[in-house]
Amino acid sequence: MARVALVTGGSRGIGAAISKALKDAGCTVAASYAGNDEAAAKFTDETGIRTYKWNVADYEASKAGIASVEADLGPIDIVVANAGITKDAPFHKMTPEQWNAVIDTNLTGVFNTVHPIWPGLRERKFGRVVVISSINGQKGQFGQVNYAATKAGDLGIVKSLAQEGARFGITANAVCPGYIATEMVMAVPEKVRESIIAGIPAGRLGEPEEIARCVAFLVSDDAGFINGSTISANGAQFFV
Ligand code: CAA
């Protein structure tokens, strides 16, 4: 039986590449998205991957969305918590709204995504959880106190889940992408972006598929002993 995988934020950017890579690896994939109906419909047309709309920041909406995925496709075996947003501002200008929006989506959103799926993984004695963190959760970033806090938080989540899930055959790992050629990075002011690229020894942005391949490996049966770890894919921009 094909494994069932859920990728949040799975119809655009890094998430879309992950959804496709998991489909190519033989999984039955569901991609959730928050708001862009047009992009989701186009993604489904192009890939045949089903898309589901809910806001990961809302626990009840996540629970209901996950229930509808499981009703359509069967129990979820693999969950990739990828959905995330930025609201960048230097700390002295950051508003409580910018702080809360990023915490609610990027950090509480991981809880809301994994928590409803977790009991089923424990019961069935198999699971793969991958959280998409960021280089900026490892090193911090000017203008991203909120985002960096959530992405560092992701690392705490997977290290704790790994310890709780290991005896049930569940692994939980993080991938820390560096700067990847997505709309999110293209939204950074051009001058700032150029100076960031100048600081990447590889001399280029990463490609979404380079992150997707890390995820495809972590969710494979072959990766069963990799648990609580972090894969960095950042073109040598930062080492932990
Ligand atoms: N380091 C040091 N100083 C910096 C700086 C930096 N990286 N960026 C800006 N500054 C300085 C400016 O030069 C300026 O100094 P002066 O007042 O002396 O001129 C001061 O800080 C304030 O800068 P601005 O007035 O330009 O501040 P702003 O309100 O316009 O906000 C910003 C700037 C929005 C934070 C902008 O710097 C920015 O977008 N930075 C990029 C943040 C970033 O990397 N985001 C990543 C998005 S992609 C992503 O998140 C995916 C992932 O996981 C990697």
TrEMBL record:
Keywords: Oxidoreductase
A single Gene Ontology CC term: cytoplasm
Entry-linked SUPFAM superfamilies: NAD(P)-binding Rossmann-fold domains (SSF51735)
CDD domains (alphabetical): BKR_SDR_c
GO BP term (any one): monocarboxylic acid metabolic process
Top-level taxon in the UniProt lineage: Bacteria
Domain Ketoreductase stretches: 3-178
One MF term in the entry's GO annotations: acetoacetyl-CoA reductase activity
InterPro entries reported in the protein's UniProt record: Acetoacetyl-CoA_reductase, KR_dom, NAD(P)-bd_dom_sf, Sc_DH/Rdtase_CS, SDR, SDR_fam
Residue ranges of coiled coil: none
Family: Belongs to the short-chain dehydrogenases/reductases (SDR) family.
Name assigned to this protein: Beta-ketoacyl-ACP reductase
